[in-house]
Design goal:
Elements: E1 3-5, H1 10-18, E2 24-25, H2 32-38, H3 44-62, E3 67-77, E4 80-82, H4 88-98, E5 102-113, E6 116-129, H5 134-142, E7 165-169, H6 172-176, H7 180-189
Length: about 190
């Protein structure tokens, strides 16, 4: 195997499998909350890039002979980086904060090989949430599947979450969690695509 995804994200795995990419998955073991806390004075883009980099490098350290994909995503509202909601109460608070506003969804995808970063890409999408009543948001949150709490912003754009938005600007794959098209170009250029 020449490729490892340093993630157990169902969406990232699904996107790579849909493209018939041969890869293995492993947990990255990076304490994301600790890293965000230590970098809290930095720009959200820099924090997300650093997280993706750490994930790729940590796994590359154990598997230097293969290419390791690290990816991270963050929701930035006016310079405030949101964490994944811990429970439905926190999901409700986050969605009420995002209500009627435009936020940035930052996605960083990085490849490491032999303990070095050999490729990096980041994408910034802009999503404008509809102006909804508290009752609409509460109804949405009450119907959330438990796995949606593992998604930053508590919405999956490829599922029901799309109805929360009146405007989405950006790469749909990056919004889902990995910049697949630029990544495929990297794999093609390095004879790893087929």
């Amino acid at each position: 195997m020449n490729l490892i995804l340093a993630s157990n994200s169902k969406t990232r795995i699904k996107l790579l499998k849909a493209a018939k990419i041969q890869f293995e998955t492993t947990s990255h073991g990076v304490d994301e909350d600790e890293v965000k806390l230590s970098l809290s004075d930095q720009d959200p883009v820099d924090i997300i890039e650093k997280l993706a980099e750490l994930k790729a490098l940590k796994v590359s350290n154990k598997h230097p002979e293969v290419f390791v994909i690290g990816s991270d995503q963050g929701l930035d509202l006016e310079g405030r980086l949101f964490n994944k909601a811990l429970d439905k109460k926190e999901a409700l608070e986050q969605l009420k904060t995002l209500n009627g506003k435009t936020h940035r969804l930052i996605t960083s995808t990085i490849v490491a090989h032999n303990n070095n970063i050999v490729w990096r890409h980041y994408d910034i999408a802009e999503l404008t949430m509809r102006d909804m009543s508290d009752e609409m948001i509460e109804d949405y949150v009450n119907q959330l599947k438990p796995e949606m709490l593992d998604v930053v912003g508590c919405y999956a754009i490829e599922e029901e979450g799309i109805k929360l938005f009146n405007s989405v600007k950006g790469d749909i794959f990056s919004i889902q969690g990995i910049s697949i098209t630029p990544l495929l170009n990297f794999l093609w250029n390095n004879k790893l695509l087929f």
